Structure formats: C-alpha cells, structure tokens
Batch of 2 targets.
Target 1
Amino acid sequence: MLNKNTYHQILSQLSPAGVTLVAVSKLQPVEKIMALYEMGQRDFGENYVQELVDKQSRLPADIRWHFIGHLQSNKVRMIAPFVHLIHGVDSPNLLKEINKQGQKTQRVIEVLLQVHIADEETKFGLDENQLNEIFNGSAAPASHVHIAGLMGMASFSDDLEKVRSEFKKLKSLFDQYSTAQLANTQFQILSMGMSGDYKIAIEEGATMVRIGSLLFGARK
Ligand SMILES: *Cc1c(COP(=O)(O)O)cnc(C)c1O
C-alpha cells in the first residue's frame, strides 16, 4: 500500500534541507507510481532496464526517471533516449558507453559515480583509486556525459555510527572532487540514504535520497 502520510512526512523532513526525493519504484506496479505522481512526485528510481523501459512507455512523459541499479554497458542504449540521471556509474568503460549513446541520441547524459563505501563485498562501486583514475587518467569524461556528483550505499547494518561514518567518508570525497576542474564535471548531487538510513544521510550532507519500501511498502 502507498503510504501517503509517510510521503508528506518525508517531504517535510527533506524540504528544509533542500534535499531531493527519488521514489524508488522498482518491482512496484504502475498504479502505485501514478498515485504518488498525482500527489506531485516526479522523480522515480528504477533498478532494472527492461522494467524501466516498460514503465517509461506507460507513464506520464514528465516523470524524471533515475536509473539506480547496476547498469550493463550493452543496455545503456535502451535508456539513453530518456533517462534523467544514471546513479550507478562504476567503471570508465560504462562512462565511455554512456558518452557514445549520448552522442547517438544527441543528449548530454547526467551521471553520478558510484563509490564503494560499505564493507560488504557485494555492493558495486568504485574505490578511491579508481575514482582518482577517472579524474586524473585517460578515462576523463567526454562531451555527451556530464558527471554531476557521487552516489553511495552504506552497509546494511544496525550500527548507526558505522553507517554515519560511511556517509561521512562519501561526503568528504564529494568535497574533495567538487573542486576538480574538469570539462563536463560539476558536482551538485550527493545521492545517499535509503528507507533505513536517510535521516543520517541528510545530517551528513546528502542532497538526494532514494527511498522505496518506506513509501510503497515491501516489494514483491
Ligand atoms: C532498492 C534501492 C533503494 C531503495 O531501498 P529501500 O530500502 O526500499 O528504500 C535505494 N537505492 C538503491 C541503489 C536501491 O537498489
């Protein structure tokens, strides 16, 4: 069930801090997305390419679609024509492919670099060295991709101080690279925080949070 009170409550927590809410609608039916849309929500996040393409074709054109999952290079072309922001860029090769598809569709595609901040091995993301390579090496961004900031996921843990310290680390990397003088790079977005930890993320400087289950209820 869509939790309308929770939606307003979350917005009232985000607005004073100027934080953008991405409503994570993966595995949720279009009816629930429409219900939230009718309350004014426009930013929605999806994890799976085929599901996103399908929903995009069925839902209003002014929805800003965020791709927040792990993106395979061979699927970039499917979302390149319409995607608003790709959160999970975790390799120079993927960045290259996004640039190529941006060229084909005559768009400049907005992306965030995903940084590995959790200590779990299963989560995707660049480590600090790879991040450095992107900014200092041959993998510098090209004309049809715009790096707008960083994204990260904290450890799935009850230890809130651990979660906080991981967000702190991402924020400090964000501050460090936000001064980088690179063509097609301008840091404005720090995407961190989900249903269980978004309040901590806001305290630690998030400008965008990605909330799913708290809004829509458990996923199927
Ligand atoms: C699923 C997902 C979310 C939302 O998770 P909830 O715990 O349901 O809020 C946020 N970010 C990413 C990258 C996700 O895959």
Target 2
Amino acid sequence: MDTKKLTFEFTAHTYDRFPVEIVGGSGCHLTDETGKTYIDLGSGIAVNSLGMAFKEWQDAVIGQILRFQHCSNLYYSAPCAKLAEMLCARTGYKKVFFANSGAEANECAIKAARRFSFLKHNDENHGTVITLKNGFHGRTITTLSATGQDSLKTGFGPLTPGFVHADPEDASSVRRFAEKGDCAAVMIELIQGEGGVNVLTPGFVAEIVSIAKEFDLLVIADEIQTGNGRTGKLFSYMHYGFVPDIVTTAKGLAGGLPLGAVLLGEKVKDVFSPGTHGSTFGGNPIACAGAISVLSALTDELLAGVTKRQKLIVDALSDAPGVSEISGMGLMLGISCARPAKEIIAQCIENGVLVLSAKEKVRLLPPLNIPIDDLMKAVNVLKEALAG
Ligand SMILES: *Cc1c(COP(=O)(O)O)cnc(C)c1O
C-alpha cells in the first residue's frame, strides 16, 4: 500500500505534509516506513507529551478499553470524574467541562463567557470577546472568528460576530475595546504558539488583568498548547501570578488521545445548567484514563526537568551561527533563524530529527520526558542545520 499516494488522492488537501510516514515509535524515537528512525522534537504538535508508548499511559488506556469504551454523558463514569477532580485539585478551579479538541474547548469557554454576561445583563448585547492580534484559537467558524490572523480567515465569511482583536504589545488597545461597554471577556494565549511562539510580557498581562477587573470582564487563558506541563509549570498562567476565570486546554492533556478541557473558576462555575452545553464524545473514558496517567506523571520533578531541558537547549543554541533569537518557555521554543525554516526542517529530517515551524521560526515541542542524551543529539543536528 502506498500511504502517501492514497493520502494525496483521497484526503482533503488541508495539510502540507513532510515526506515521512510514521509507522511506530518508542519514547522520543519515531520510525518511518523505510525503517529509518528520528528523534522527535515535535510530539505530534505538543500532543504526545510523554513520548510514544509510555508504559503507564498504555496500561491505563488499554485497561479502560478492556472495561468499556464509551457510555455517553447520560450516565456516570469513573475516569471522567477522577480526571475532573485531579484537575481541580491541582489548579483550584471549581468545575471542568470535557470536550474533544482545542477548538471545542475554546467554543465552550466562549459560550461560558457569553452566558455569564447574559445572566448579568439579561440581554445578549454584552457578549463581545476581546482577543489578540496574531493569536490562534482554532479552526471552527467561531474559534476562527476569535483568531487574530486575517490570513486564516479569508474566504470563510460570514464569520461569527462579537470578536475584536487588540494589539499584544499595547494594553491601551484592550482598554479602548473594554470602554465600549459591550464586552464579556478577554481571551489570550500567554504564549502565542501558532503565531510564532511569542511570549506575552508580564507587564502586558498584568495590565490586561487590571483592565478586566476594572470593567468586570472575564479573563480566558487559551492553554491548548501551553498547558499540561509544556512550559515547566502545569499551566503557563502559573508563571504570571494571576488566575484566569477560565482556562482551556487540549493538546498534551491525554498524551495522544483527543481530549479538551475547560476549567471554570469561581465566577463561572455555575453558568451551565443541564441542556445549555454538551458533547457526545466529551469526557470519553479512554481519553480520560490516558489523561489521568499523564497528569499523574506531571510531578514537580518532571516539571523541573522541563525547565532544565529548556536551559540546555537555549545554552546550546542561543549563540549558535544562524540563530538570532530564541523565544518561548519550557519545552515550547521558537528559534529565529537566518535560513528559511523550511530548509532547516528538511535538513533535520534528512539527518533523523523532526522539528516544526511557527511563522518564520523553527519551533521545538519535544516530549517533556525526552532523555537528555537524545535531546542533545538532536540539538546538535539542528545546530548544524541552523548554521547552513
Ligand atoms: C492547537 C490550538 C488550538 C486548536 O486546537 P485543535 O485541537 O486543533 O482544535 C487552539 N488554540 C491554541 C492556542 C492552539 O495551539
């Protein structure tokens, strides 16, 4: 069977794929159809947070498959309950809603914010959500509308109304939208991932938090990519010393299975009542069992290891030829490079290392537990490619 040919012929042309077919893997090592192995610095875009074939995760997932695979949200099931409890215990949030993806988690957060505003004003005229230019919140029509990148939106109108985009370098632009009086929430990525691994400054975030307080707006942190240990803390807001009203996450949560979660704080914990929101697959017991094993593995020691690995990468590459700047936090790093990212990625693939891009940067999202020697081996390959 020619996978590449079939994919090209029979799947919608939404992806510009690298010429590699993955057939297996273990830890940070992936194997392609020719038997060649790669060190993976992408984790399936921050999804396989503990690498391939992580033993506890496999046991948890297979164990749940053997018990039952799905039961609908009309009944109770233990993995969903246990995972919600664990997330609340680790964060202080009050309630969790489970979805299947990042976009769906964000849809829920937006609904929660609008519902909160509706319950406060008793009308639907205060539901505008302020997001940031260059941000990314998903591909559904509403999360695309929330996304502050025109290039992604062209040709998909009419979009969902009620989104405005402020400047991530200028908090006064957030204030100007807030002053119009029709807003429910500010929704931000603390590190803009798809937008180029741009870290919001603590000063900017502090100003947003203070504007939100002044105008009684909810703060929603989109931690789809930054959550679940990726930045060296369980969630990236924990680096900033504030607590968002709502946090969304997905990518790394279930270690490779589709699962999204929305964490609802004190103000919004009761905005939903039966029938106001839902999902057929959301909280699927297999995905939740996987997530429980991931969350259990995200100990303080593992999180410290994420920061340690970040330092090793930055030390090795920050003054390297062809590198002008490294942005990001933990194991979510963007490298501004002299050569086109596409060429660097191709050379890395040639030499057995998988890296990603974000805008013009090379982006690294390795498994959080990648062995140091494999990491440094891969970084050396990347260093060579960066130098050109
Ligand atoms: C990936 C991502 C999304 C979308 O997640 P999907 O699971 O692809 O729907 C939303 N927001 C951010 C910040 C992301 O990185």
